[in-house]
Amino acid sequence: MTDTVPVGPPIIEVRNLKVGASERTILDDVTLDVFDRQVTAVIGPSGSGKTTFIRTLNRMVETTPGLRVEGSIRYQGQDIHDPRVNPVLLRQRIGMVFQRPAVFPMSIYNNVVFGLRLNGTDPSEFDRIVGHSLERAGLLKELQGNLDRPAFELSGGQQQRLCIARALAVKPRVLLMDEPTGSLDPISTQRVEETVEELRREIAIVIVTHSIAQAARVSDRTAYFYQGRLVEVAPTEVLFERPTQKLTEEYITGRFG
Ligand SMILES: Nc1ncnc2c1ncn2[C@@H]1O[C@H](COP(=O)(O)OP(=O)(O)OP(=O)(O)O)[C@@H](O)[C@H]1O
Ligand SMILES: [Mg+2]
Questions:
Q1: CATH number of the domain to which 210 belongs
Q2: Is the CB of 26 under 6 A from ligand 1?
Q3: Which of 6, 107, 156, 237 has the least C-beta neighbours within 10 A?
Q4: What pLDDT, in 10s, does the model give residues 151-192?
Q5: 48 in a domain, yes or no?
Q6: Range of 92's domain?
């Protein structure tokens, strides 16, 4: 990605984040900024803590018992662990899409309005929001107006884009994507990448990927994690062409070679 937008203050500021499970440390002293209207890619070997990292950003990590979180995370300047912060609302502002599409056992339409019913959106707005969200997720045309079908009847790639539409319906400011194309074929992967490209100047996106080529295609900045630590973060081209850390270089050359 080459064009740049003026970079404002970070939308999420992570400082000295540490996540532990009983005796072991999963994330150690991670300090990272996520900027608005940019795509941040998170790369690193399996087990390096990528999923745990993005799950801490919207407090999803709390749904897994036994993990301790230390350090500070600010979203738009506010400490997300402040007792006044409602985690359910936080997860609408900072939405998430998982590797395996997690559609709900209901119609396509009801999947998209799920969060709108929870946050008290006026139902007369539903049709408009559903259309707009499916359009932005690159799914509307394919569905040809048939939104009453069970979501399970969609292909895997379509289900993933439905999950993106569901996350977008509640107007997130940040979208966290954990290997969103990990289980998809190349054409569905391309569609999801096109969606990321469309959203990239509107909201902040943090995308975990095992594909260095994908990180290079879709992201503005890339963060390299290794054994629970953030080794290096830089503009994507810089990280791939001139990494400053030997660990980063070993990882990216290993994958290219
Ligand atoms: N709830 C938990 N309890 C104990 N250990 C955990 C827990 N969740 C994750 N871990 C450990 O933390 C480490 C990082 O896991 P995580 O899922 O964040 O890695 P990852 O980088 O996303 O890996 P992958 O690329 O395979 O998805 C792993 O060693 C994992 O076993
Ligand atoms: Mg993972």
A1: 3.40.50.300
A2: yes
A3: 6
A4: 999 998 899 999 999 999 999 999 999 999 998 889 889 989
A5: yes
A6: 10-101+174-256
Distance CA(223)–CA(231), nearest Å, equals: 8
Among residues 53, 58, 67, 115, the alpha carbon closest in space to that of 85 is found at: 58
Asked if the structure places residue 216 within a domain, the reply is yes
Residue nearest atom 30 in ligand 1 by C-alpha distance: 47
User: Residue 76, SS3?
Assistant: coil
Q: Give the pairing type, strands 174-178 and 39-43.
A: unpaired
DSSP 197-226: HHHTTTSEEEEE-S-HHHHHHH-SEEEEEE
For atom 24 of ligand 1, the residue with the nearest CA is 46
Q: How far is the CA of 137 from the centre of ligand 2 (A)?
A: 23
The answer to whether the pTM exceeds 0.85 is yes
